[in-house]
Amino acid sequence: MSKNIIIFSGQGSQYTGMGMDILNFFPRLDYIYKIGSEIIGFDLKQASISYTKEELSKTIVSQPMIFATSVLCFEAAKINNIIFSGVAGHSLGEYAALYASDCITLEDGFQIIKKRSELMQQAADSSQGGMVAVLSKDMEKANNLIKTIDGYIQSVNINSPEQTVFAGDIEAIDKTCILLKENKIKAIKLPVSGAFHSNHMESASVEFSKSISNINFKPLTKDFFSNLNGEKLDKSIPINEYLGKHMSSPVLFTKELEYIKNLGYKNFIEVGCSKILSGFIKKTLTDINIYNIEDYSSLNKTILAINGD
User: What is the pTM of this model?
Assistant: First the structure.
């Protein structure tokens, strides 16, 4: 049997109605939204149904909602006996990966996400930052152009050989979009409210690490792969310290994917909102299988494929 890894999507993958199709078929999983809503302080299910794209893009909204959707889809996969031996996540997705590897409870997960989103929103509001996804077959050219930009900007998500996300001061982000367009390089300003995984988050990351030091992080029961170095998580580092550093450090997703494949993982299952990560995986790896679970249809396709593998 091929080795399966579950990978959870992160911020920017949100959309109106996310998770609701799965919930319709698995109403017993409604407890996820009830627990989350009580802890976060607003109705997560109602927000998924009715919030606009702009409302969903706020960090304090999108993070708990994406976490809830990821856990929902993961639990639906477990009900259908999808077996896995590794977990990973892109940025925010690492929190669902911690839950899936039994490191944190659902309640602790929402408590952690609440604190994280609040601190990141505060940092975003005070720093006026943004993020832009750069898509090019010649990333070296794009990188060299961006180096000429006045103001603070740095690469923060290396998602595939043809996509890197940059974060920084909003003025620098806007200048980057104009410069790359003039050079016929695609640049997409992301629907996020701050410069995440950059220096803009440093003060928030220190406070975050301290604020979650009382959480009872349990030993990981699955292989857990890290955005920080693209390898397995170093178990000698306390999880609260790791998550603090994670907030202000780049996501080395391409390196991480290659490392996972080299350990023999064959089936990559994206769980949560949309299929953004599936695109990154397809552009980065060959000779592997890519599946996703975000609604009932994709769940059934994945079950049939995995069970037949």
Answer: 0.94
